[in-house]
Amino acid sequence: MQKPIFAFALTAFVIAALVGRSALAQSNDKSLNAIARADGYSVQWLLPDRAVQLYRPGVIVVLHPGATMYEVNDRVEFGDVAPRYINGDMLVSNALAARLGRLAALATAANRTSQGRLMPVTGQQNTVAGALTVDARRQNGAEAVHVSGHAPSGAPVTITLLATISPDLPTVVLSRNDLQPDVNGQFEATISIAPDYLRDTLVQVLATAPGASPAQTVVVVGPPNAGVNVPFDQPYCPNNLCPL
Asked: Which helix (H) or strand (E) covers residue 3, if one does?
């Protein structure tokens, strides 16, 4: 008789703990849009999996609803509670909100070191005059894209490459690259598309800069030397006897 009572008590305890944890998590929910405004992030929604990309110079964070794993630049981290998607916003825990704040502060410190000036973390992004534009094309002879464009003068630009390889698979981040425009706001770079070498897939080129609306374009992956006839790659036809 004692075993059933003990099992029932243990089950009730576990259920109560789970309910309590869920209630605590929901009570600690923070709006990701509000966090982004407070920490100076720009927000980009990545379809089709409704992931959210937060970006500011020096740091890009990709969060997925229902997953504790998230991406910070080129590494993976884990949160305590999975974010939840609700009405065009994502709700995150206090711990994750604090982590996003620390990442923003670290990016600010890194910018101060590299540029010799402090870019303050405030509730609003720095406003810079001018529009952000981006153009991209396949780089001949390489598995890469050549990216160029114009940014507000003095504003660092982050180029994010995202790959869409199938309607049934989520968009994935290939790389993130920080560029510094010249005094006229012009920037350009050749960026590898690794590891997406699959022909006819889509590479989205997303340009972001503080205070400017994001700009983007799409490149279709093709052979690095399209249209080039290489003798070695032609069939061998002795005495021109190859079938037509």
From this structure: helix 2-27
Residues 6+ apart with CB under 8 A from 227: none
Give me the mean pLDDT over the 186-207 stretch: 92
- Write out the two tokens for 150: 């114009």
| Pair of tokens at residue 55 | 């970006």
In sequence order, which residues have a C-beta less than 8 Å from that of residue 102 and are 6 or more positions away? Answer: none
In the chain the first and final C-alpha atoms are separated, in Å, by 88
pLDDT at 18 over 60: no
Query: What phi and psi, each to the nearest 5 degrees, are found at residue 153?
Result: -55, 125
The tokens describing 238, both together, are 């002795």
Task: Give 220-227 contacts, CB < 8 A, sequence gap 24+.
Answer: 221/138, 221/193, 221/196, 221/197, 222/138, 223/199, 224/138, 224/139, 224/140, 224/141, 224/142, 224/143, 225/140, 225/141, 226/138
User: CB of 25 within 8 A of CB of 93?
Assistant: yes
pLDDT single digits (tens) 41-73: 988 887 666 788 898 877 889 898 888 888 887
Per-residue DSSP letter, 58: T
pLDDT at 244: 57
Question: What is the C-alpha to C-alpha distance for residues 140 and 145, in angstroms, rounded to an integer?
Answer: 9
Range 84-110 average pLDDT: 89
Task: Provide the whole-model pTM.
Answer: 0.54
Q: Is 18 helix (H, G, I), strand (E, B) or coil?
A: helix
